[in-house]
């Protein structure tokens, strides 16, 4: 009986340490997406880091900074951070990386919103939501990272 009680207390203690960090992750991912959504329609500006104009990595960096996380400036440098995630295990807030002709160095980054949707700053539409399965982005996908 005493062993069962000690085991139960140990498990409860472990979850008390894990659960806050799990909810914190969910919270900052949602905050980053919320910030990005507030900027829908902002024009694309090469090198842009603010609501006056964003490029893709500028939007991601800005959105995550507002959520309390610091990311590198470029898509290529962001790709070096975080934990690799398979496409089948994507969750809200994961970063999606794209490159022309299946190159290994990404030139575009977006935030996964769930349900095959992403938010990003596209040179053609500015800050907008797109399908990860559309004919333009799908063949350029090279991987995802969880921050």
UniProtKB/TrEMBL annotation:
Keyword Protease: yes
Pfam families in the record: NLPC_P60
Domain NlpC/P60 span(s) in chain numbering: 26-147
MF terms (GO), sorted A to Z: cysteine-type peptidase activity
Signal peptide: 1-25
SUPFAM superfamilies: Cysteine proteinases
Keyword Hydrolase in record: yes
Key words of the record: Hydrolase, Protease, Signal, Thiol protease
UniProt xrefs under PANTHER family: MUREIN DD-ENDOPEPTIDASE MEPH-RELATED (PTHR47053:SF1)
Protein name: C40 family peptidase
Family to which this protein belongs: Belongs to the peptidase C40 family.
Biological-process GO terms, alphabetical: proteolysis
